Amino acid sequence: MSGLSVIPQANRPAAMGVNGMATSAHPLASLAGVRMMMAGGNAFDAAVAVASTLNVCEPFMSGAGGVGLALAYVAAEDRVRALNFSGRMPAAADPEEYEAADKDVGIKSALVPGNVAGWLTLHETYGKLDRERLFEPAIGYAENGTAITFFNAKSIGTSVPRLALFPSKGIFVKNGRGPGPGERVRQPQLAESLRAIARGGKDEFYRGELAARLVKGAKELGGQMTDEDLATYDAEWCEPIGIEYRDYEIFSVPPNSTGFQLLETLKIMEGFDGSDLVFQHPETVHSYIEAVKLAVTDRIKWGGDPDHVKAPLKGLLSSGYAERQRSRIDRDNAAVVSGEEFSRMIPSGSLKAGSADEFDGGMTTHFAVADSDGNVVSVTQTLGGGFGSAVAPGDTGLFLNNMAHWFDLEEGAPNRLEGGKRVDFCLAPTQTFKDGRFHVSLGTPGSWGILQTTPQFVMNFLDFGMNVQEAIEAPRLRVFEERRVVMEERFPYHVRAALAEKGHDIELAEPFSTTVGGAQGIMVDHESGTFQGGADPRRDGAAIGW
Fold it and tell me: What is the Cα–Cα distance from 450 to 359, expressed in whole angstroms?
């Protein structure tokens, strides 16, 4: 632990377990994961159960029509693997035929969904239980109904104007409104689609009768997705990217994920120690904000489909580049940054991306599962916006994502929308190792904020001595355009005032704000042979150990 500081007390204890742990944004999903492990399954089996149950219990955040990424520590192989199932634009997509609104809502905003390929690739490669068993919790909840939580009611209510534009609105919109807290909602169409996936696997979703219904329903609404777009899609295993951070190794997912932004931020912060690294000290917070700005500008320059833009990762994540970036931080004044996305019109005096080549040396959800064999699976998956495109084609009950929203339409943008292309993907789960052994899984949803908020709770855990629940609950902030910083109001007044004196434009968010994500985490204590789990109260998070 560096520096002297007062660690905020968590509102709930970290969950404990000796056989395994599942943590997600909904208690029924976490329970589904534990049920699989109790039935003799492993973390890979449990991950499918958690993911599919979130489709039912958090339908506005993720589902079979969405996309995602995974990090998996495979104990038998003693290695971390990354799995990319982030989807692709339909091959026929033409940026000249898109207006900004087309990217945000409606069938043209949907990428080819990757989640089913991701879930079932995890299971086919490393799972133990029969596939149909993994979907039993989700199918049961969809058929019999679940009680809408207060958070669900608020989230669905916010999405009613989007849903009301399309025929599938009837699934969640009745008499012009969404369901209220405590209402029981059944999703029989979703149950049938999940049952079809459970029986037929990837072939059913991407090449079978369900695939045909998805394409037919999409075409009826003017969509561009074809049978071939689905039939040729699959998840891809790839090597993770990582950094050394103090005495740890931290891994995330390579591009098209822009996890390199959060890793670069941590490398910059690695150079601060002692009195320069104190929890909630104004100087530490200022340095962090400025480090985020520097890393954001690099992500805007280099983020995108690696088939189209080659990020100089070796340089961006090097100690030498971090030292140079750190030297650009003005300890007394806030820098101006253009924002979180590509734009040709940037404020005068905005930070520009560094030169790393010379250095060799929203609506998303996150969950994690760890088992007694030592496997740990960390998944971030999304629909994009609320209910994604707001379209569930035909009678499938499967809402498709709107990840085209995260493409740019401007010519010259590294992340410009093109047919068959992968999007600059802000999802970035992390796994951290100490002395060569798995230590902690930490991740969050939160759009571009994922890349800013994840380093905060990673540092809370690694640098400031918090347990996994304390690290997740502690106040977080997010950096926006120019000098604007949104901070949860639990940051002490004197910290906010000191930052304002340095030129930061401080805006307050509610004490526990979804603006800064909804994180989940699992720590493994190898000496005791136990698990500790943390879940974010900013949503309906629940960690369950057994």
Answer: 26
Please say if the pLDDT value at position 3 is more than 80: no
**How high is the pLDDT of residue 351?**
52
CA distance 231 to 234: 8
Tens-place pLDDT, residues 450-468: 999 999 999 999 999 999 9
Instruction: Please state the φ and ψ torsions of residue 31, each to the nearest 5 degrees.
Output: -60, -40
Helix (H) or strand (E) holding 315: helix 313-316
CA-to-CA dists, residue 456 to 336, 346, 406, angstroms: 21, 27, 24
CA distance 255 to 334: 29
Is residue 262 within 8 A of residue 455, CB to CB? The reply is: yes
Q: How large is the average pLDDT for residues 256-268?
A: 97
Instruction: Give the burial class of 332: count Cβ atoms within 10 A of its Cβ; 0-12 exposed, 13-18 middle, 19 or more buried.
Output: exposed
- Contact between 364 and 68 (Cβ < 8 Å): no
Instruction: Say how far apart CA 390 and CA 8 lie, in whole Å.
Output: 39
529 φ/ψ angles, rounded to the nearest 5 degrees: 70, 40
What does residue 337 show for φ and ψ, rounded to 5 degrees?
-125, 150
Quote the pTM value: 0.93
Render pLDDT for 173-205 as a digit per residue (tens, 0 to 9).
988 999 999 999 999 999 999 999 999 999 999
Whole-angstrom distance, CA of residue 130 vs CA of residue 123:
9
- What is the crossing angle of helices 188-207 and 209-220, to 10°? 100
Cβ pair 87, 271 in contact under 8 A: no
CA distances from 226 to 87, 93, 190, 384, 388 (A): 14, 11, 21, 21, 19
Confidence of residue 353 (pLDDT cuts 50, 70, 90): very low
Measured at the CA of 115, the angle between CA 112 and CA 121, to 5 degrees, comes to: 115
As given in the structure block, the two tokens for residue 508 are 């307050």
Query: Pairing state of beta strands 477-479 and 484-488?
Result: antiparallel
User: Positive or negative CA dihedral for 46, 443, 343, 310?
Assistant: negative
Using DSSP's 3-state secondary structure scheme, residue 150 falls into helix
Reply yes or no on whether the pLDDT at 135 is more than 90.
yes
Q: Provide CB contacts within 8 A for 522, sequence distance 6+.
A: 21, 23, 368, 369, 370, 376, 440, 441, 468, 531, 532, 533, 534, 543
User: Nearest CA to 120 among 41, 229, 47, 35?
Assistant: 47
Packing angle, helices 319-327 and 259-269, rounded to 10: 70
**Burial of residue 240 (number of CB atoms within 10 Å: 0-12, 13-18, 19+):** buried
Which residues are known to be catalytic?
Answer: 364
- Residue 349 pLDDT: 52
Q: What is the pLDDT of residue 337?
A: 84
CA angle at 48 for the pair 42 and 49, rounded to the nearest 5°: 90
Give first-to-last CA distance, the chain, whole Å: 30
DSSP 46-95: HHHHHHHHHHHHSTTT--TTSEEEEEEEEGGGTEEEEEEE--B--TT--G
Q: How far apart are alpha carbons 336 and 322 in whole angstroms?
A: 19
Average pLDDT rounded to a whole number, residues 474-496: 96
Integer Cα distance of 540 and 289 in angstroms: 28
